[in-house]
Amino acid sequence: MKKFYSNYLMKAALLIAGAAITACSNNDDVIAEQIENTAHTYLLSVNASLNDGVLTRALSGGVGTGPINFTWTADDNVDVYKNTNEKIGTLIPQTYGETSTTLKGTITGTINNGDNLNLYLHNRQFDYTEQTGSFESAASKDFALATVSVTDVSTTNITTESANFEPGQAIVRFSLFEDDGTTPINATSLKIRAINTQFSAAEEDALRQSIRVKNSPQKGPLTINATSATNVFYVALNDLSTNGTTLWGLTATTESEGTYNYTLTATGQTFKNGNYYTVNVKMKKHLTLDLTSPEVGQIIGSDGKNYNATTDELPDGVTKLAMIAYVSGSKGLAITLNDIGMEMNHSHAEYFAQLQSPSFTNATWRLPTDDDWLNMFKGCGDTEATYNSINYTYIDEKLEAVGSTKLLVSGTLKHYWASSSSSSSRNDVFLSKSSSSPSKITTQNLADTYRHYVRSALVW
After folding, report:
1. How do 143-153 and 116-122 pair as beta strands?
2. Predicted pLDDT of residue 317
3. Taking the CB of residue 391, how many other CB atoms lie within 10 A of it?
């Protein structure tokens, strides 16, 4: 646009006064400015350093925790990007074996003073899918990033600030054992899910940064498929440093012993990028539910047997799992004694409701259906319960009698998720103390921006 305008002035000047020299001088200025805004090939030399704990390949022996020390090698190519998707060149280290080096290479593009360049060491994407649980697999996800500002542009060279690379991942060594802490669980796959209270409900999956494809966050658990059965999984994760409460869920699948489940609620859990962690996970083996003349109000223990909560003494090592809330012949329902973790969106509610431990070969943990809720309210004494009118008092009295947390505490309005027994619609159980509007089970299609409380039902 400026060149066109200068040429126009030149022609006008020639026609009017013949002042060609002035016009040409103006045009030369425009040509010089055009050179600065045209793509060229430049030599780029950057002083680069790596913080302790940048890449996981520096681990040796897989023992201990703490920063992962790293030095440069000949294979450490660094891709240079201007803007998000514009690759303009590649740099290579000039010296090896140290934490600092000089990166050199050519870049091609339109570069001006003050532009920011992103330097990606190894991978550019937070894509931690398709891991196999081996150390080599986790190390292949190595990622580090530095952003530098252009300080000078000449006709052949570009000068930038020094680059200080920051790590893009942590690595966690999960060792799986039965609940005795010594018997290894050799699994063919490990599924990991984590949600956190500090994230919005729509994106509350704490692993969302670790499950990226082409820089787009993907919801759902991270699944590690081993090439052969093992009880040790090395897993690359992206910065799970949180200040809120995190609910972790792990499922190990074996070839002959079925699945093992594990959940943990942790506050301030941190897997910081650039660090290595070892975690021993004790997982309960699935059992056979062994009930003798089950009755509403009894509890089910972690050994799969039923007990009278007020008169029976639980065997050593046995804990309370759930309260029987409905019995009909050989079928029944039990409800977990406390809310699971925290309020969460519906997709996470379904996942964590199924993840109770131990699992049973002849019974199923699940998010209660609308029919399950209604049957449990009726089974606990609200014989007149309908979808449009339920009384939480009866079930809460029985929960309180077994030392459980009531559904409605101090009159607080609480909403519980349910799954649908008849369609794909989501159902939300409202427990309300309002005298003008009775508590009811109502069907709604709610987005993942909604969070509600969760109880799990054991169904047999």
Report:
1. antiparallel
2. 87
3. 17
**Tokens representing residue 406 in the block:** 């009531």
Q: Please give the Cα distance from 22 to 14 (Å, whole number).
A: 10
215 vs 218: CA distance, rounded Å: 9
Residues 6+ apart with CB under 8 A from 136: none
Strands (E), 113-214: 116-122, 143-153, 157-160, 163-167, 170-178, 187-196, 212-213
Q: Tell which residue, 159, 227, 241, has the closest CA to residue 196.
A: 241
d(CA 295, CA 213): 50
370 phi/psi in degrees, rounded to 5: -60, -40
- Separation of alpha carbons 436 and 100, rounded Å: 71
- Decide: 143 and 169 in contact? Cβ < 8 Å: yes
Quick one: pLDDT at residue 247? 76
Phi/psi for 392 (5° steps) reads -75, -10
Judge whether 113 and 150 are in contact, CB under 8 Å: yes
Task: Give the model's pLDDT for residue 424.
Answer: 53
What's the pLDDT score for residue 431? 59
Spatial distance between the Cα atoms of 460 and 329, rounded to a whole number of angstroms: 11
The CA–CA distances, whole Å, from 50 to 47, 76, 145 equal: 11, 12, 10
What pLDDT shows up at residue 147?
Answer: 93
Residues lower than pLDDT 50 in the chain:
1-36, 53-64, 201-204, 206, 208-218, 435
Element (H, E) at 113: none
Q: What is the pLDDT of residue 197?
A: 60
Amino acid code (one letter) for 266 = A
C-alpha distances (whole Å) from 372 to each of 128, 186, 268, 406, 456 are 38, 35, 35, 17, 10
Closest CA to 428 of 413, 417, 412: 417
Does the reported pTM lie above 0.85? no
Contact 420, 369 (CB under 8 A): yes
Cross-strand partners of 267: 245
